[in-house]
């Protein structure tokens, strides 16, 4: 039996989530409070993301309540990663606008992400430098604390 691997279509959201979605496709309608609980974002933040254009169009129920999908959860996960990079909100909104404009913006999106990667690598280098200084200082204090003990031991051995 031969298995044919199908390659998923290009997606601009992010990699598939490491853990499965709480609900399967087709049954993935989450309220704002459920999304808040799943993502750790407040309802206020989710509404703000939508208002500033960072969140793509969110479906509404017949009563006007937001109904988020698994795709929305994936997008929010990606936005969370962008936030961790230190990317300014304005750049995240620009990226979201580029996504909405379509495939002809791939180059601009790639450049924005590459610049963010350069910024992250620079911050990592700064943090590694800072870590080396901390390690040196911690070692200095550990050695200084051991020194009196070894001096006292040496003195007692002489007696």
Written account of the structure:
By secondary structure, the protein is an all-alpha fold. It contains 5 helices and 2 strands. It has helices spanning 32-39, 43-52, 70-85, 89-101, 106-158, and strands at residues 59-60, 66-67. α4 (89-101) runs antiparallel to α5 (106-158). It starts with 31 loop residues before the first helix and ends with a helix.
Structural class: mainly alpha
Rg of Cα set: 25 Å
Question: Helical region count?
Answer: 5
Q: Low-confidence runs (pLDDT<50, min 5 residues)?
A: 1-10
Percent strand = under 5%
Q: SSE order in H/E notation?
A: HHEEHHH
Helix content: 55-70%
Q: N- to C-terminal separation?
A: 83 Å
The largest beta-sheet arranges its strands as 1-2
* Count of β-strands: 2
Reported for the largest beta sheet, the result is: 2 strands, antiparallel
Mean pLDDT: 86
Brief overview:
This protein is mainly α and 159 residues long. The chain contains five helices and two strands; from the N terminus they run ααββααα. It has helices spanning 32-39, 43-52, 70-85, 89-101, 106-158; strands at 59-60, 66-67.
């Amino acid at each position: 039996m031969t298995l044919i691997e199908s390659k998923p279509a290009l997606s601009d959201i992010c990699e598939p989530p490491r853990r499965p979605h709480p609900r399967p496709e087709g049954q993935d309608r989450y309220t704002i409070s459920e999304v808040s609980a799943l993502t750790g974002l407040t309802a206020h933040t989710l509404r703000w993301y939508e208002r500033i254009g960072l969140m793509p169009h969110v479906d509404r129920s017949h009563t006007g309540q937001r109904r988020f999908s698994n795709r929305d959860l994936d997008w929010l996960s990606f936005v969370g990663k962008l936030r961790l990079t230190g990317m300014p909100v304005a750049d995240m909104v620009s990226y979201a606008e580029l996504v909405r404009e379509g495939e002809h913006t791939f180059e601009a999106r790639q450049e924005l992400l590459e610049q963010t990667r350069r910024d992250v690598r620079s911050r990592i280098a700064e943090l590694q430098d800072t870590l080396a200084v901390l390690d040196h200082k911690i070692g200095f204090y550990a050695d200084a604390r051991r020194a009196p003990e070894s001096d006292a031991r040496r003195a007692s051995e002489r007696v």
